Amino acid sequence: xxxxxxxxxxxxxxxxxxxxxxxxxxxxxxxxxxxxxxxxxxxxxxxxxxxxxxxxxxxxxxxxxxxxxxxxxxxxxxxxxxxxxxxxxxxxxxxxxxxxxxxxxxxxxxxxxxxxxxxxxxxxxxxxxxxxxxxxxxxxxxxxxxxxxxxxxxxxxxxxxxxxxxxxxxxxxxxxxxxxxxxxxxxxxxxxxxxxxxxxxxxxxxxxxxxxxxxxxxxxxxxxxxxxxxxxxxxxxxxxxxxxxxxxxxxxxxxxxxxxxxxxxxxxxxxxxxxxxxxxxxxxxxxxxxxxxxxxxxxxxxxxxxxxxxxxxxxxxxxxxxxxxxxxxxxxxxxxxxxxxxxxxxxxxxxxxxxxxxxxxxxxxxxxxxxx
Length: 372
Hints:
The structure is a single chain. About 35% of the residues lie in helices and about 20% in strands. It is α/β, with parallel strands linked by helices and about 375 residues long. It has an 8-stranded mixed sheet with strand order 9-8-7-10-11-12-13-14, with helices on both faces. Helix 9 (about 225-235) links the parallel strand 10 (about 215) and strand 11 (about 240-245). Helix 6 packs across helix 12. The model is unreliable at about 95-100 and about 365-370 (pLDDT under 50). One of its GO terms (molecular function) is ubiquitin-like modifier activating enzyme activity. InterPro entries: Bacteriocin_synth_cyclodeHase, ThiF_NAD_FAD-bd, Ubiquitin-activating_enz.
């Protein structure tokens, strides 16, 4: 399809042009590299490239080069667009600054910025738990332009949270964490909401209904929320991704895709069955279930791990929802240990007798066929 004459051309984000001694030129970025050779290289460097400022329309560029046939010029420019070293966009279109690097990467992967903005704007991600990694994930998703990030954590910010949450100062202590993060993220990307919904089984069910994805990030002192989310996720065919911190270690996953993977209960049942001594482990689980109070701020925790896990959650969420790459954490958990050089990935197998997912619900329509 021929591009409109008022389209504008510019170097793709992060692209540099380096003249070579041979008379050619290297056009390179972190995602693409192209070497120009031949008699037309000098023409491109000296006369064409200065005109590709993202402001002049193709018609204006062609008019400034009367000795070059417009059809030939268009063909060469579009070939450079296909090589991912130039970008072409409607005149006057400028992406919002916070998402520009991400949109540039998506364009390099073949998803044009307008389509990417449209896809991102339709996403609704619910983040349950903002005491550490959940806050980091929410911030990154907002910065990437997710249409709505729903913040769920009505508990007051504690002094220990200041080091675990991004951008939080001591003045936030005493304010509900969801309000703290909503203020910090206001104006960054899409909408940030804090629904007035009770943190109960029924409340979690209402929050998840209609979402694109839910992230479970509460501390194990409120582990009941993970089980409420698991049931709501399966009931409404909404993918859910779980994560928790413990001292200098973290576990990210599993990603539960209803109808396609093991569920969170499968994961917990198999985990408990593998324990050396079942009785004390089960007693510990029941003790945590009765607390109904997240207390990561009172536990020994490595703050940089919160940012690392938040980043993994955000990137896996975007991979899943935009169909960018295979989802690493579907039916898997990623173990991170700050004292070890490499993470480890473990499969999570379905439990045929799982009381929650043994009768599978169909997967979400947007994910059937393996692509968002």
